[in-house]
From TrEMBL:
Similarity section: Belongs to the type IB topoisomerase family.
Swiss-Prot/TrEMBL keywords: DNA-binding, Isomerase, Topoisomerase
Entry superkingdom: Bacteria
Molecular function per GO: DNA binding; DNA topoisomerase type I (single strand cut, ATP-independent) activity
Any single Pfam family the record assigns to this protein: Topoisom_I
EC number(s) per entry: 5.6.2.1
Enzyme class: isomerase
Protein name: DNA topoisomerase
InterPro entries: DNA_brk_join_enz, TopoI, TopoI_cat_a-hlx-sub_euk, TopoI_cat_euk
Reaction equation(s) it catalyzes: ATP-independent breakage of single-stranded DNA, followed by passage and rejoining
GO terms of biological process kind: DNA topological change
Ranges of residues in domain DNA topoisomerase I catalytic core eukaryotic-type: 2-197
Amino acid sequence: DRAMALAESLPTARSRVTRDLHLDEPVRARALAAAFRMLDTGSLRVGSERYAEQHGSHGLSTLLCAHVSVSGDVVSLAFPAKSGQAWESRIVDADLAGVVRGLKTRGGRARLLAWRPEPGDRWRPLHASEINDYVKDQTGGDFSAKDFRTLHGTVAAAVSLARTGPQDRPPARRRALSGAMAAAAEVLGNTPTVARSSYVDPRLVDAYEHGETIDPSRLGSAESEVRALLYR
């Protein structure tokens, strides 16, 4: 239930993060807010400096400016992720795009998520532990990137199943579930098998097997709809 508890905390946390994204200077709180927003909308792993050094693979905390491009309100990511898999995704977010656009002016080899106390000071890259602490501070819970990924994978699968609708025939249900896991995998950058075994809440599958989905007319509130479905 960690992912569902996270979903309950997110409306308030998102408001706080938006406030920090609007800070004028590239201070630590603004960089941390950008990290939170990317976790929340991009389903990224946090990553670690050791993993980047040993394997050449990156996560949120070790992204370089070269891994990110900005066009209008769209932030595009392309980088070698866990196990060397190529990660490509897009985040449409005007507040985040504005912050990232400013951070990218430091050159492609610079760490993207960085801050400085005062103009003229050296830039200080964020570390994974700082991002994790900020997530806990804003949500009021002991949540991690895995919880964001579990939530997003479950919601993606739930939306797919709602659009397909309940199916009476077992073959049709299997196809619908297969499509839902593919939708979750696309969000997470995993295979459908990993999405089902490690991320998508099994109660969602059980509900679908019994003919229940979230309300297809309320997909704009999918997170709260998923919580309501799983807690019936």
